[in-house]
Amino acid sequence: MSSLHVVALAQLLVAGGAVVLRSKAQASEQFFAYDYSKHGQDWAAGSCSSRSRQSPIDLPPAPPVTGSFSYKYNKIEEPFELMNNGHAYSADLGGLGYGGITYENAVYNLLNVNVHSLSEHTWAGVQQPLELHMVHKRYDGEGLLIVAVAVESPLLTGAALAAAAAAATARGGFLQFNASQAPLVPRVAGSAYNEPSALDPLFNPTLQAFLKMPPPPPNMKIRVPADPAHSFDLNSFMQGLPGQGAQFYEYAGSLTAPPCAEIATWLVRKDTIKASDTQVLYLHDLVFKTTANKGNYRSVMPVNGRVVSMRQGKLEDLPPTAAPQVKIASRPQQSDREFRAMKWAQDAMTIANSATAYVKDIDSRLRNAAQAHANALAPQLEPLTVHGQVIGTDANQTLEEHMAAIGAAPPAPTQSPLEMQRNAETMARTLANTARQEIEDATEEISKRSKDVAMKAAREAAIMVMSGNLDKVAAAPAGATAK
Predict the structure, then answer these.
(1) The whole model's pTM is what?
(2) What's the pLDDT tens digit per position in 416-445?
(3) Which domains does the chain have, with CATH numbers?
(4) 3-class secondary structure for the chain?
């Protein structure tokens, strides 16, 4: 039975042209219709036709280690979604605070984990049965960091596949796979699903996250159960010898599916991780069934002079910027991000109210100045009255006293039209300068207050997030202000 498994996998590896997938979906600006009938050689969407820095590649013999990076993942102790998008199985872990990688002084948070069969990268020409892609996104940008980890089992290894493929080619090769000769789905097929046994040799408890439940059909998803007693530790994919991390090839590359955007940095694990034969066989079969026995691996791309180096992984705590979301015990539906947003909204309202008060004050001063100007030009006019109050000169204040108060020359007892025009121009300039100065002073004060409030809000938010002490604020009655 084991030899049949290896031969059948080899036949799938070398078989070609039997089935061509034809997608009926229309490509759009956001979605691309593609298949693996030619393993990416016919893709033209986006940057797929480029060969400047495309992925995957064939990895050379191990170069010397030139640097390091740190990683830290929190155990998956809550249910998560496993999606079959028609091309791959993907565990959606984005935004759940499960950690990530610190690379070149930048934090990359985990988004998802995808399964590929056969492997997309090759190690000195050798293709492995499975390859996991752990996709990370830079916390302050759009850059991606993808960790690739190859998986093999005691019988289903890259070397065994290569030997079986060579033997099949020598016998004539390129034979159409016949499931009746070597059934690859002894337990996946049918209505009943039997989870791989934890007693199998080299059973991998983390890889079991993809096999805990019956995998979903194309374009469907399921919810995988998890709790503190039955958790999944992604750190195991990164660990090497006891007490140290594994080594990873490093190179600049692209996404391996349309639009093949050249925005990814790859860290490809040098050594494979181990799993049981049943686990590897299940995942391999499921991927091939989804893709009409073609798999979901892209052909290797030319290196084109790119530097391929080696980095050492280290298990270390991530910087505070990558801390997981803090949960509020008394209000579990809210996250610390929502709390900070509410706090900043309150601060924005304070700033807006302050700005409104200053605008009202400026408006009042301008009305007073306009009334004084009118009194100077036409003393016989009635004073301006607003809401029952006289605006402008005081009822007991003479015109000469008011003009002296605003810095204008008192009018002559009798003025000619020319003198009146000159006095009006002088007062207009004086009032304009006064108004401009008032507006500049108000603008400066608003800017200063806004900056002070924003800085205070940022400090309070940072202290609250770092300490995790949000319960008191969450439990405070509506309208209460955090101290």
Answers:
(1) 0.60
(2) 666 666 776 777 677 667 767 777 777 777
(3) 2-318 (3.10.200.10), 336-475 (no CATH)
(4) CHHHHHHHHHHHHHCCCCCCCCCCCCCCCCCCCCCCCCCCCCCCCCCCCCCCCCCCCEECCCCCEEEEEEEEECCECCCEEEEECCCCEEEECCCCCCEEEEECCEEEEEEEEEEECCCCCEECCEECCEEEEEEEEECCCCCEEEEEEEEECCCCCHHHHHHHHHHHHHCCCCCCCCCCCCCCCCCCCCCCCCCCCCCCCCCCCCHHHHCCCCCCCCCEEEEECCECCECECHHHHCECCCCCECEEEEEEECCCCCCCCCCEEEEEECCCEECCHHHHHHHHHHHHHHCCCCCCCCCCCCCCCCCCEEEEEEECCCCHHHCCCCECCCCCCCEHHHHHHHHHHHHHHHHHHHHHHHHHHHHHHHHHHHHHHHHHHCCCCCCEEECCEEECCCCCCCHHHHHHHCCCCCCCCCCCHHHHHHHHHHHHHHHHHHHHHHHHHHHHHHHHHHHHHHHHHHHHHHHHHHHCCCHHHHHCCCCCCCC
